[in-house]
Amino acid sequence: MTITDDPSTDTDPASGVIGSRLLRKEDPVLLTGEAVFTNDMVVPGALFMAVLRSPYAHAKIVSIDTSAAAELAGVRAVYTGADLTDLWAAPMPCAWPVTDDMANPAHHPIATDTVNYVGDGVAVVLADTDAIAHDAIDMIDVTYDPMEAVTDLEDALSDRVLVHESLGTNSSYTWNLLVEETDGAVQQAFDAAAHTVSERYVQQRLIPMAMEPRAVVAVPQPFGGDLTLYTSTQIPHVLKVMVAVTLGVPEHQLRVVAPAVGGGFGAKLDVYAEELLCVALARKLGGPVRWNETRSENTVSSIHGRGQIQHIELAADSNGKLTAVRVRLTADMGAYLQLITPGIPILGAFLYAGVYDLPKAYDFSCTGVFTTLTPTDAYRGAGRPEATYAIERAMDALAREVGVDPLELRRRNFIRPEQYPYEAFTGLVYDSGEHDKAATVAADLIDYAGVRERQATQNVEGATKRLGLGVSSYFEMCGLAPSRVLASLNYSAGGWEAATVRILPTGKVQVVTGTTPHGQGHETSWSMIVADKLGMDPADVDVLHSDTTIAPLGMDTYGSRSLPVGGVAVSMACDKVIEKAKQIAAHQMEANVDDLELVDGEFRVAGTPSKSTPLAAIAFAAFTAHDLPDGVEPNLEAQVTYDPPNFSWPFGTHMCLVEVDTETGDVDVLRYVAVDDCGNQVNPLIVEGQVHGGVIQGLAQALYERADYDSDGNLRTSTLADYLVPAASDVPPITIGHSVTPSPTNSLGVKGVGEAGTIGSAPAVMNAVVDALSGLGVRNVEMPASPNTVWNAIASASQSTDTSHSTSGGQL
Length: 812
Ligand code: MCN
Fold this sequence. Notes:
Elements: E1 3-5, H1 27-31, E2 47-53, E3 59-65, H2 67-71, E4 75-80, H3 81-84, E5 114-115, E6 121-127, H4 130-137, E7 141-146, H5 153-157, E8 171-180, H6 185-192, E9 195-206, E10 215-220, E11 227-231, H7 236-247, E12 254-257, H8 273-285, E13 289-292, H9 295-301, E14 305-316, E15 322-334, H10 344-348, E16 361-370, H11 384-402, H12 406-413, E17 422-423, E18 429-430, H13 435-446, H14 448-458, E19 465-475, H15 483-488, E20 497-503, E21 509-513, H16 522-534, E22 541-544, H17 562-589, E23 596-599, E24 602-605, E25 608-614, H18 615-624, E26 636-642, E27 651-661, E28 667-677, H19 684-703, E29 734-737, H20 756-773, H21 787-799
Parallel strand pairs: 1-29, 2-13, 11-12, 15-16, 21-22, 28-29
Antiparallel strand pairs: 2-6, 3-5, 3-7, 4-6, 8-16, 9-14, 10-11, 10-13, 14-15, 17-18, 19-27, 20-21, 20-26, 23-24, 24-25, 27-28
The chain binds pterin cytosine dinucleotide.
The site of pterin cytosine dinucleotide has 36 residues, from helix 16, helix 17 and helix 19.
């Protein structure tokens, strides 16, 4: 793997700690194997749970015989769904009922009468060891009456076979967003357009594949009703509320802790059956219960991502300036609605016009459809990579239609810097952006003009190694808040975040954050924010998180929200602490509060630098409380709960250079350039790490990964031998460039970056692949662009002059 950076474009830390490339505090324990993951926890007396999973995608459960399993030595209990119905106070939660009439079948942690996907839980065993529990589930005898599987989205839409008979339909909901300046503006724009394109793209299902599968340990206290749930989750705070509601556990007696998580990528932003089962069974039996997911189990029992069929139409004037966008989506919900399943495509609904200046002529509709496959839910980017893919692929199609270079077409359409803050067609206000600048940095880094010249000489008739250059300009809509805007989308949670900053008597600092880092480096970043504010060493700041007893208030980590919401809350809490400390300092220094300033960790009287008191001394004085001004409480601590005024809108341009071998279909990524503008950067090293990981995830969707099902609903890619996660040797050279356009909506001027790489990359790669083959008549290649798929696309293009519209079915 070669990852190269362009140091000339690094953020220059003008002063202080923010902007410096501090190594992550989190890494030593992870790299030395000292970190404690949930499954590392030693819990004496815990029973091990194993789940028997359905081998059928769709079947009635006729009978279950658990007698042999129950008799196995070391087995403590065996339960079927019917045995456990009394434990559920409510069905498993779906927190995003996107429409009032959304169909949502009741879903419990263990099936009772039908199974609806391969991997659906049918029975559980509790045993003295993990091995005995797994042996025992093999001894449970289930008689199924198989039904036809529903694996094709377009077939599912026809309701030929119903996934849930009681619903009478496979459609969960249809969500519309029609924005028109005047009635019929969209159709009028299409009627009047000089150019139109109509494209169909398939977002294949992906398996998130975090480094660690999931694990759960539920520990009830021996005396009293308190219970601690340790789990590999991104959302301990949200989970706590949901466990309380679903199981009827008194919330004040529940503590949820996320030890080292091992990556989540959205898949651990959920409330899973096994979490509810462990808590319910630990309470029922009065002792600890634990569960550890195997890798193959993970491929069917943790959520999948993407899974959409996208139809996008663009209308443009004779210069290629967009005049209307129409989108029709069919989104695969899988068998059930998990925590935010139905909302994922809706998160993309606002981005199908990308970074372009579109008049009020936008027509979006999405239908969520049930299939007999593993439920889908958030996967890095969650709706936004899908939207970006569609608009960016369609912009290339439009460029071919208009007959201009794809970068030039984008430049004609970019929202211009002077239009910011920009009220978009949807009514959302984009905070800041310089799209042409980001595109120019990217074009310079990849030598855009030079590559176009090389193409002219290399991609000639008969050439078997063809160069392709792909462009993708994107928005990453993140830091989703304020809460009242989320309410208007029917989203059940808020968008705020909480932070406490506590200066201890000796001057060291504790930060308590409601974010739940699981690879994003918040301990480092939040320390840097505090160090910068208080004028101290980041090593003297400790960041506490991921435990609902230590950090009772929080909304957790997803949607690239943690810095623009949680990090800003930390900064605001620092301001509050400084204000209090200033009052104490003024009192002690017999100075006017307004004359004091905090410089390099000490309060100085403006104009009299010799008169100063260290912040640490003020902290000690606040602790002893011997001599505080009237009305000032002891100790230095402040809490802030911050609900931002707006989303944050990072953006950027990615470019990819590929060489495609037309004889083998092999795609070789020669260069990759990512220019991501996330406003001011707290730690450019972490930003780059986030971008690298994200780019590789998008590249993996473009070239390698696909959850491949047969028509009976069996997952054919249930091991890492079949599901092609890219290896380090598959990763191309990545050049990172930056542009920095601060957000005007928060005091740090920051925007999120956690999903940017994933959002920008898949369309850049696929546009490059299609660009390489455009001389052969290829207009579309489906993802993943495996050698076989590419070779077939070339072969069918040679038989047909127009392959721009795929005619494959609705299987993802
Ligand atoms: N950062 C910065 N300056 C900026 C923006 C971000 O220094 N202008 C830093 C932040 O301080 C933070 C990190 O970058 O340390 C990411 O911040 P942010 O963009 O706020 O994103 P979140 O922390 O909310 O992370 C969520 C995001 C998502 S949605 C997924 S999915 C994802 C991702 O982060 N999953 C990950 N990155 C991951 N990285 C790892 N290792 N593992 C995962 O599961």
